[in-house]
Amino acid sequence: MMEEKQQYQPAPPANGKAIASLVLGILSIIIPWVGFILGIVGIILANKAFKEISSYKQGGRGMAVAGLTTSIIGTALYALFILVAFIGLATFSMY
């Protein structure tokens, strides 16, 4: 019986910007006040990661998607929070 050797190709390395985007996206949800800025940076890094992944055939597309999603959620949460805080302060200062 002859065994055929299967050759596996290693997975392409994950894009560093995709990893950073995921980390910043998670932190943007967890860390108050600074989360808005971290989310914006995470969105920018995710977009750059998508371009690099397609150009250089790198891995990490799933991390870039997750980073973009968490960054958008974190940014939207804190933008809504800041908007409500300003409306509350404006309403409170009227009385």
Main sheet overview: none
Helix and strand composition category: mainly alpha
What fraction of residues sit in β-strands? under 5%
Number of helices: 3
Give the overall shape. rod-shaped
Query: Assembly type of the shown chains?
Result: single chain
Series of H and E elements: HHH
Span of the ends, CA to CA: 90 Å
Taking pLDDT < 50 over at least 5 consecutive residues as the criterion, the unreliable ranges are none
Tell me roughly what share of residues is in helical segments. Answer: over 70%
**Total DSSP E strands:** 0
Mean pLDDT: 94
Please, could you describe this protein's structure?
There is one protein chain. The chain is built from 3 helices and no strands. With 95 residues, it is mostly helical. The longest helix is centred in the C-terminal third of the chain and has 34 residues. The protein is rod-shaped.
